[in-house]
Please model this.
Amino acid sequence: MYWRSGRLHCLVVVVVALLSLGPAWAQYGMMDGDGPSALGTPNLPGVEPQGKGSTSVWGEARVWEGDNWTFAAGVRANVGEDSDVELTIFNLDTSGEDAINGAVRDSEATLIGLNYRWVAFRNERVSLAVIPGAEFPIDDMEGTNTAIPATAMSGDLIPLISLPVEHVLADGTILRVVPRYVGFDDNPELANGTTIEGFGDVIGLGFGLRRQIEEFAVMGDVTVILDGNNSIDENTNEPTDEFVWSAGGSWQGVDSPVRVDLFVTNAAGPTGASSIIATPDQSVGIGLRVSGEF
Model:
C-alpha cells in the first residue's frame, strides 16, 4: 500500500491550515491536564492521553436494521508524559436476515488494532496530537457484494493516522478538528483469483463537539471524505464516498470511574479504520458504549 502523492499533499495542506488558526483561538484559552478534553466522540479521537498511572477499558456495540452488528473493545494505558497506547479489537458481522440497504450482506471482519498517541503541541491556545497506528486482520476480511454475488477477501494490514486538534471554550465545550488517513486494500481478491475495486487510500476531515452539563454530556461528529471511497453505493454496489457522522450523549456520575455513551451513527465502528467506513445510503445504527478507568 503506497501513499499517492496528491493525497499526501492534501493532508499536509490541511494540517498546516489548522495550525495557522492557533492565534485566532487565543482569546478562548485551553484546559490543562487530562480533564474532559481527554474524551473523544463516537467516531473521532481526542488529543489528551490517558492520565499518568491510569488505565481505561471500554466495550461497545452498534446495531443496524436486519440484525446486523459490530462489536469493539479496547484497553488504553499511559506510557509516559504526553503519550499513551491503545489496543483494540473490532468485529463486523452483517450476516443478519436483511442486508443493510440491500448493498452489504454476509460480510465479516475481525481486526486487532494498535495506536500510539503523542501530544505534539499544547499551549493556552490550541493542542495537537499525532496518533499513528495500524489494524491487523485476523484471517481474511470478507465483504459480499449482493449484486454479483461475489465475496471479496483481503488480509492486508491497514495503516492509519489521525491528527486531532482541540480547542476548549470558556464554558467547557470542546471543539475538535481531525484530519485522518486510512489505507485500505485497493484491489481485494475474489475467490476465483480476480480482483475488484476496493476503498484504497482514504483521506477525511472530521469535526467534533462535546458539551458537558454536570453529569451528562452531548456530543457529535461528522467526517467529510476529501479523497478515496468509504462506502458502497446501494444502487450500483460499487465503492463510493459518504460523509460519516454521529450524535448522542453520555453519563458519568460524580466521582464515578464508569461512563456510558448512547448514540446514533452511520459509522461501522469506533476504531481508526472502522470509524471512517459509512453504511450504504446513510443507514442509521444505534450504539452503546461503556468505559471505565482504574
The two ends are 38 Å apart (CA to CA).
